[in-house]
Amino acid sequence: MVAVPSSPTGYPMAPSAEVWAALSSAQRAAVVAALPGEVTYDEMAMPEGDLHFRAKVGALSALRAYFERQKRRVYLAAELPIYYPGEPRFAPDLIAVFDSDDALRSKWVVSAEGKALDWVLEVHVGGDRKKDAELNVARYARLGIPEYFLYDRARNRLSAYRLASPEATSYTPILPNQGLYESRVLGLDVQVERDRLRFYAGTALLLESEELIARVQAMADDSLQRAEEAERLHAEEVRLRAEAEQRREEAEQRREEERRLREAAEQEVARLRAELERRER
Fold first, then answer.
1. What pLDDT shows up at residue 209?
2. What are phi and psi of 219, to 5 degrees?
3. Mean pLDDT along residues 200-223
4. CA distance linking residue 187 with residue 118, whole number of Å
5. Do the beta carbons of residue 143 and residue 116 sit within 8 Å?
6. Labelling 64: which of 79, 93, 194, 266 has CA 20 to 30 A away?
7. What is the pLDDT of residue 67?
8. Where are the domains of the chain?
9. How far is the C-alpha of 146 from the C-alpha of 90, rounded, in Å?
10. Given this structure, which CATH class describes domain 17-207?
């Protein structure tokens, strides 16, 4: 049995790359199974309520829907425990790892997955801003995460960072272009609009799940209205046709009655003429 190492603060962490390389397949599987799929409250920031939750979930839903439409293999997760070799674990608000299956996971062990994180988003609402704005900027760069985006929901501001090269160990700030921050990793532009973090593919806005649902519902309502209007028009057409048929039948009946009366009158005239002729003889 291989012992799971602990961080300096006493929490479980993944073995170093050297130790991992020396393990057998069975030992590696045992280590991965032993690593917890959650982090403690002491390791996480305090809960930050709806502002934090909605910003994180909104970004996750917009990205997931977009990449599903693009049929691109990418793993997206929120607050997932991340284990880098020989590093204290952490749980970013949102991660993206490309060319990885979007399977259900309870943790991401870099050595076992064979892939490190490609993109990280942190949402800050309250508490110590230094963790997200300074410590994570240094940490994520040192770990080689290509891009790090920080959405300061309290100030409604966005900061973004990128490694200038795979060998870089510190970030270069991404400068906005007319308010848009380019994410080369995602292939998208990111912007804060009012009170939301927005993603753009070119000029197309990526909608969040609630917006997609609302749009689908609106389309369904519109389709229902059109169907009801078509049904109403059809019923009106049937009614008009029935009325026209009734008028046609009534006109036919009048013509038949007029014909009958005319024949009767002609017969009466003929009878009277015959009667008159008989008397004149």
1. 64
2. -65, -40
3. 70
4. 12
5. yes
6. 194
7. 95
8. 17-207, 208-281
9. 17
10. alpha beta
Position 127: which residue type? Answer: G
Tens-digit pLDDT profile for residues 79-100 = 999 999 999 999 999 999 999 9
Give every strand in the sheet of 171-173, ordered side by side: 74-77, 94-98, 119-124, 147-152, 157-163, 171-173
Burial 212-250, CB ≥16 within 10 A → b, else e: eeeeeeeeeeeeeeeeeeeeeeeeeeeeeeeeeeeeeee
Q: What is the DSSP string of 187-235?
A: TEEEEEETTEEEEEETTEEPPPHHHHHHHHHHHHHHHHHHHHHHHHHHH
pLDDT at position 64: 94
CA–CA dist 132, 151 (Å, integer): 9
Cα 155 to Cα 47, 52, 229, distances in angstroms: 18, 12, 48
Report CA-CA distances (Å) from 139 to 48, 229, 252, 253: 22, 61, 94, 96
CB within 8 Å of 40: residues ≥ 6 apart: 11
List of residues 6+ apart from 150 with CB closer than 8 A: 121, 122, 124, 132, 133, 136, 137, 158, 159, 160, 161
* C-alpha distance from residue 18 to each of 11, 23, 117 (Å): 20, 9, 20
Three-state DSSP at 99 gives coil
Q: From CA 20, how far away is CA 24, in angstroms rounded?
A: 8
Tokens of 198: 């927005």
Question: For residue 16, with 0-12 CB atoms within 10 Å meaning exposed, 13-18 middle and 19 or more buried, which class applies?
Answer: middle
Q: What's the pLDDT score for residue 217?
A: 60
Q: Which residue has the tokens 């007029």?
A: 258
Q: What is the pLDDT of residue 187?
A: 97
Helix (H, G, I), strand (E, B) or coil at 35: coil
